[in-house]
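Before relying on records like the one below, remember that each one covers exactly one chain. Contacts with other chains, cofactors or solvent are not represented anywhere in the record.
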Amino acid sequence: MPSAKKSGAEVIKATGAFEKRTPGDMVVQVILYIIVGACALLCVLPFLYVFAASFATEREILERPFFILPREWSFNAYIYITRDGSVFNGLKNSVIVTVVGTLINMFVSCTLAYPLSRPYLKGRNFFMNMVIVIMLFSGGMVPQYLLIANVLNLRNTFWALWLPGAMNAFNMIIIKNYFQGLPLELEEAATIDGSNDLLTFIRIILPLSAPVLASVSLFYAVSHWNSYFNAMMYINDQSMEVVQIVLRRVIFLTGAATEDMGFDWGAFGSPPTKAVRMATTVVATVPILIVYPFIQKFFTKGVMVGAVKG
């Protein structure tokens, strides 16, 4: 009588898990690698050019349409945008706005997502429909400005940058779906052990939701870092300007500037206009890029699971 159990080698042989690839399979794989590599280069090369051009002379930028390494390294662009200290002050303000704003976003989103993820919440569908409505419709820019500037009197405060977008409905739904996918038995076991809703949320739900929390936090952080329109509307005090507004002003001033005494700008005798634009792009982009590798591993697990479970 044949044995009911099969050895590992027999299983592998039966399933064909380690069959030798045919020459056609290898050709297809090589083609796929070439396509993926070409797409990666298309994404990376523009930023490499911007980074190299920020250290190049103005003449080289005008003469060479594309390069990865400059012939002559120049720090004039970075000297120009950092000489008065406004860029460093803008970076400090942007870090404050991004960190505190992200904490506020996550607090509001998580505290709303958790009760909406519980099937026993009364009126759950009503509150969920309200969230969907605000995701699809808004009051408009003018009513929002009147509310923030005149009613709440939040001009020239960071609260004007935090409160209007305290919660993104789409991100909240992602977190809610992730919470909804967690077993209810965990909550029931915690309740039997004497835990209340707040302790269950803090000690059980949040630690198990690290992937989606990290992913959504980065979405909020990138949104705060790149946002400039609200800062342009509500912040008039230069000491409170975020880095995006500071760099925008630097670019405009550079375009209108003539000869700047005290610095050697080379043969052109004026600030390096194109190099300054490249340098401002690098200054505005690199800080948020530094954070991305630490959270990248959570993206697939956090966003995809939170998006498909419901």
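The mean pLDDT is 80.
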